Amino acid sequence: MDEFSFIESIQQHYYRQSTLAKGVGDDAAVFSPMGNDVVTAKDMFVENIHFAKHTMTPFQIGYKALAANISDMAAMGAKPVFYLVGITISKDWLMEDILKIYTGMKSLADQFKMDLIGGDTVAGKELVVSVTIIGYVDKEKARYRNLAREGDVVFATGTLGDSQAGLHILNNPGEYLAQEFFIRRHQLPTPRVEFSCALESISRLSLNDISDGIASEANEIAQASGVSIEIYEDKLPIHPAFKQFPFEYQFKWKLFGGEDYEILGTVPKKHWMTVKEIADKMNMLVTDIGLVTPPKASGHVLLKRINGKIEQLEKKGYNHLSR
Known about the structure:
Helix content: 25-40%
Oligomer: single chain
Number of strands: 13
Largest sheet: 7 strands, mixed
CATH architecture of the largest domain: Alpha-Beta Complex
Strand order of the largest sheet: 8-10-7-11-9-12-13
CATH superfamily of the largest domain: PurM-like C-terminal domain
């Protein structure tokens, strides 16, 4: 299959978003957002860094590549509407596998009624999937990291460390409790768009998606807002089967693991029960894990350990440029 036949095979033949004036077929797409703010983000998935053939199928690679971008929309309180895909294809990948990557993306895009509106295809030494996503949010309703204030409740959705537990299981085959749950959380994560958009009525929120680990995300909110954050270790939500792993793994994965694509947020105490009620209606777990406090010389984020000891929680989540 040549490049043009490939493009023909993946393009949509109809579009769901009424704001789209022109999709695939010209040099660029055209859309009119009708009074919303436009939110955009980009993530790259690189073979043997973000995924490997022995831990993820082509379908799962595509699904997760788009999920990571949709999670960025959730962190902004935005609804995802369009995406563009740039892909570098190495000779080690069959065209049928590449098509399955797009099928994985389409499967998730269909859930959110998103449209594929463009991209690019080139040959290279390794497989790289680069996704650009576009979303809408009501005017002045985007959720920024700099909106945390002293006295706010710090909360997290779902359970933490699951993705890294799943990756561990895939790389270390054996008998594990809740094995399918942890593997699915690694391969097919669930972006929390519905939840974050349902918080629209709350006047002030800071949100961050947990892509690099909660320690990293909490530090980003604290630094952007000029505050400190206290997190209580005994309140960090984990799956009941998480305790089967060695304690040092549990500690590392739930704080620094990343790729859970849950939401970390801060909210005024008076609105905390609203957050809880919204999560309950969605049958989703949300947990009060800490408090926003005045800036402290000892660090932006402090962790109160189970033994009562307080220590600085450094920004040590995944970093591609660390050596």
